[in-house]
Design brief:
alpha+beta; seven-stranded mixed β-sheet; about 30% strand; globular
Length: about 150
């Protein structure tokens, strides 16, 4: 993996919005629509959350954030790696950074929701120690939704 630099960046900053737009386009391609989970950019600002953008020198390559949803519980959202940066360990490194950020926010549990049409994401999360958990959130009743959690 090349040296990726992760920078804390506001959720609604131009570079964040660009990458979030790309992940939403990927959801449209895979599922027929964007992720409709309600998201307030303020949820990804300290002390309630954080959002990071990954750079490979001058190129945007990845993003992701965590937000506190209950005392001691954080949720991973908008984790994305551009196709040009995949299969280089960027996603695993980003996930580790986001876990560290969640710990720093006081979370002892990190949970996430993904979908059955993202087998590469499911494989990453399972290999990083995430286990299936009870459904939660906006997509709790969706049959293609997969919910995972990990004790930090």
């Amino acid at each position: 993996m090349s040296d990726i630099t992760f920078r804390v960046t506001p959720f609604d900053a131009p570079e964040s919005r660009l990458l979030i737009g790309e992940v939403q386009a990927e959801y449209v391609e895979r599922y027929g629509g964007p992720d409709e989970t309600p998201v307030d950019p303020a949820e990804f600002a300290p002390p309630h959350g954080i959002f990071v953008v990954g750079w490979d020198i001058c190129e945007l390559v990845a993003c992701g954030g965590v937000r506190i949803t209950a005392p001691g519980v954080a949720e991973l959202k908008r984790m994305y790696v551009r196709a040009s940066a995949r299969r280089r360990g960027v996603a695993r490194t980003l996930l580790g950074r986001l876990e560290d950020e969640a710990r720093g926010l006081g979370a002892g549990l990190l949970r996430l929701e993904t979908g059955s049409r993202q087998p590469e994401a499911i494989a990453l999360y399972e290999s990083a120690g995430y286990a299936a958990t009870e459904p939660f959130g906006h997509y709790a009743c969706e049959p293609e939704s997969r919910h995972f959690a990990k004790e930090l």
